[in-house]
């Protein structure tokens, strides 16, 4: 019998991929205007490489970019990028259209709800608060808090411990097969993959359920409680 649901955050409850891409491009334009010696296209290639190497939650993307392009530390250019990125991000940050309704429905079923996500704790909390969905969750568990992230199965076990439920009592909802579905399934949770975001076209054969919209989740949960 299902008693709780753990969610990934980025690209599961809101569209992280599209807003981040646009915010980065706007930030680069502002940095170039402030003195970054690069074209937007070349700067984006370098920035994407930095993000790939150091992860999306690394705090020095723009610092490294300025050093790589201009050869020196320039706080004005870096700050211009940070301010522009956050201004655009916050203007675009919205939950998926059916996220709020779905969370309300799950709450009405008496389920415990939690977030289990990679990322810096303060940054992930900021997203939840700005999205307006933080009151729905009993626990917000981050990789920074635990010290290890996805796809480490001990991180998922830690999430279960935090919400005080057994694996067979929990549904895990995420967008990635490799980092969400595989470890959650290996721990023993029921898995629901939401096919949204930049990983939506990557196939998998491990998810118990696949959905294209979060509005489909409540119907699945009702069959499991």
Automatic annotation (TrEMBL):
Query: What GO terms in the biological process aspect are recorded for it?
Result: small molecule metabolic process
Essential cofactor(s): Mg(2+)
The keyword Metal-binding is annotated on this UniProt entry: yes
Q: Which UniProt keywords apply?
A: Hydrolase, Magnesium, Metal-binding
By its UniProt entry, which InterPro entries does this protein fall under?
Answer: HAD-like_hydrolase, HAD-like_sf, HAD-SF_hydro_IA, HAD-SF_hydro_IA_CTE7, HAD_2, HAD_sf
Q: Where is the signal peptide?
A: none
Which SUPFAM superfamilies does this one have? Answer: HAD-like (SSF56784)
An MF annotation (GO) of this entry: metal ion binding
Family indicated by similarity: Belongs to the HAD-like hydrolase superfamily.
Function recorded in the entry: Catalyzes the dephosphorylation of D,L-glyceraldehyde 3-phosphate in vitro.
Q: What is this protein called?
A: Glyceraldehyde 3-phosphate phosphatase
């Amino acid at each position: 019998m299902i008693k709780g649901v753990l969610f990934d955050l980025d690209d599961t409850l809101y569209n992280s991929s599209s807003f981040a891409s646009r915010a980065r491009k706007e930030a680069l334009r502002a940095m170039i205007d402030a003195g970054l010696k690069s074209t937007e296209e070349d700067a984006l290639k370098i920035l994407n490489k930095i993000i790939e190497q150091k992860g999306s939650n690394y705090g020095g993307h723009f610092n490294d970019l300025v050093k790589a392009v201009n050869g020196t530390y320039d706080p004005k250019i870096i700050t211009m990028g940070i301010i522009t990125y956050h201004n655009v991000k916050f203007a675009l940050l919205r939950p998926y259209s059916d996220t709020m309704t779905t969370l309300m429905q799950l709450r009405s079923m008496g389920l415990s709800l939690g977030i289990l996500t990679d990322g810096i704790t303060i940054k992930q909390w900021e997203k939840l608060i700005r999205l307006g969905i933080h009151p729905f969750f009993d626990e917000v568990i981050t990789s920074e808090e635990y010290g290890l992230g996805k796809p480490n199965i001990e991180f998922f076990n830690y999430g279960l411990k935090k919400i005080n439920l057994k694996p067979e009592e929990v549904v895990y909802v995420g967008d990635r097969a490799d980092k969400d579905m595989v470890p959650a399934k290996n721990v023993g949770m029921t898995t629901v993959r939401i096919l949204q975001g930049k990983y939506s076209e990557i196939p998998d054969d491990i998810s118990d359920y696949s959905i294209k919209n979060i509005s489909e989740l409540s119907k699945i949960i009702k069959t499991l409680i």
